[in-house]
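User: Run a structure prediction on this.
Assistant: Running it now.
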Amino acid sequence: MTPDRHKLDVYLQSVNEQIQTTKMSSELWFRSPPPHQIRANDQFVRSLMSEGLAPSASPAISAAEQAEHRLSAVRSRYWAQATRTRDVAVHFGAADHASLNEYFTLDAGRSGEAARGRARRTVARSTPADYLLRSIDRLAAATDADPAAACRKSMRMLARDWPRLVLACQAPPDSVLPASRVLREFYRSTARGDPSRNGPKYTPHGSPGHGPPVLLTEVEAREMATSYMLGRLPFTDREYRLAAKLAAMPRLQSALLAVQLHLTASSAEPLARLVAGSGTPRVLLPFTEAFVDRFRYSSAERIDLRPNPKLITVLCNNVVPAIAGELLRREARAADLDSDSIQAGVIAARRRHIYEITIALFNRTDTLPPGMVVLSGFSRRVCPAAVPFSEFLEEWLPYYFDRLS
């Protein structure tokens, strides 16, 4: 594949070394690309992922290492590679830990119960986030759904009905519309059942409609972003407690490391072809969560990919709790962990929507007062590597767990 250089250049205008994701662009920088550009960028990156993540059918850990059950050899090999690019990995989201063990940590604050309680304690009354949380609570009570599922459905409804809600709240001409008023209307509409029956069809990336600008403060925008993150936090306190025990097991740790070493080694050749076809190493920026370039993407002639240990922490917080959930469903303990439960957990993680979230599109403009941003619509974000990476994990994580005992 020869990547389209124009599409790459357009992509790098909004997603690059500094603004590393569309979500970060909206929620941290308040610089959301327009919906048509988001769609084009997503399509472009998915094509890169399908070409670049092409793991080989051969294991990355030698038969000798497997036969000797050398967990320490896998750890040493991984850490030797990761430490050579630690500063690059930190730039792309890894914690700056001094030891490998520190990356095998779980944040119990990511459980659905903990996140819901924290949001309720910190969100101010009658703000956009408050009305969103109330809508989520109402939907959860009405459908007996867990908070994460209720949040995802609430955000789908809000994105679908946004143009209608803005028009329903329309202020006098040449005036602005507070986001809290629109979210309050959404909250009220949830009491009347599904508000979409007479509204426009849902469009995946939202629509600003033709109403007045919808404004909120930067503080309110960040509160709202924190609140809808509930949709990506489907695991319970109990699952996190068991997951912490699993993540401390040397055998599972080594299997996770071996998986990432395998992914890095076997993707090197197809990624080198992407660089050669595009003429720039920056075509590799969408892959930084898995591996980073030792030469900081400075030369198309010098590429040396090393594992980014950020991925280990991401797996500990998102996939290991799903594995724990499968053990709990079977009324099993940490000591009962086996390759079948690992495979079931990887599949369950996908089913529990850890790879997707609907975000708000925030923008700061020169015409707005300081500290104010526009909320123009919504975008459903799906990890572009979700399918190839999840399938790879489903095959190889049980494999290495069985052999690195």
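The mean pLDDT is 89.
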